[in-house]
Predict the 3D structure of the following.
Amino acid sequence: MHVAVALPIVVNAMTLLPTPDKLKLANLPTPIRPLDRLSEKYGGPRIWLKCDDQTGSVLSGNKIRKLEFCLADALEQGAQMIITCGGLQSNHCRATALAAAQLGLQSHLVLRGKKPPDNDADGNYLLDKLSGAAVSVYPPKIYMESLPGLIAELIEAYSSKGIKAYSIPTGASNAVGIWGYITAAEELLADFKRLSFSPDEIFCATGSGGTQAGLTLGMHLAGAKVPVTGFAVCDDNAYFDQKVRQDVLAWQQRYFPSGAYQDRQLAGIHTDLKVRTIDRYIGAGYAKGYAELYSSISEVASLEGVVLDPVYTGKAFHGLLSEIKLGNLSHCSDVLFLHTGGVFGLYPYRSEFI
Ligand SMILES: Cc1ncc(COP(=O)(O)O)c(C=O)c1O
């Protein structure tokens, strides 16, 4: 079997911490550009867009930065099968299944939702099917109650057939995956230097918390003062506060178990972080849209040629525009929005845009 070769360990220039092996799956660095027509219309800070929707065409969005680390770890452990989970239209599951296919690995997706008829696969689910992934779909109640057991059973079943399985949690948000956005923070700081600006705040959508955790930690490790705020798409502020700190603690314990690296104190870093979340734009719940959200998505597409999705980036960007309108960002002259991809998740909402 032909598989990609992991890169050697390198010391990260910004954080001066050793970074584990990663694969090269994403097209990096991603572009960054100002959205001046939109900024002018809203009359607030200049809005910059970091285009992580352009990390690839189908291996796209934020997930692929995390998967570069998770899949390197999977290969190092001799995995032949990648198991992961998420909603029926999960961008993470689609990216994982296609990345696994690219690496010559098998994949099995455990999805939450209502299984569509075979001739009606849409959006990410259609791409999951094309990737050749095995797919198990469970009703939300069963999924929520039994996910760890379902995954453990799958690992066991593959193992009894002599297939070594590696499981990646929801959104690849764990100790390994958050390296994707710790290293992205370095890329952003290089962007700011090259373009001679420094945003007063950075915003992103937050769902499983790993992007927010990695960026918050990456900026903290680099000594950058710019705050990172996640716009929640599902749970509340307290949930993300706890989830981000939990991922950061797991990262410290896995990679720096002694609690320090050279003269850097890393123990307790999860308590030092400022975790900032805004949970006012979720609407009725995860993946549930609303009229103002759809109209922000249409406005941004027509004014700037930027396509957002109703589940993640649309809710977050709608939140950003609403905060500007409310005057809550009047202290900012520049803000940065991280576009985390998700375009395939737009298609199942087609009827909202007619
Ligand atoms: C397009 C998109 N943006 C943002 C997010 C949120 O990222 P995270 O899961 O790291 O919080 C996700 C996944 O959950 C996503 O698919």
Summary: The radius of gyration is 20 Å. The domain at 63-172 is CATH 3.40.50.1100 (Rossmann fold). Residues 61-62, 91-92, 171, 173, 205-212, 312-313, 340-342 surround pyridoxal-5'-phosphate (CB under 6 Å).
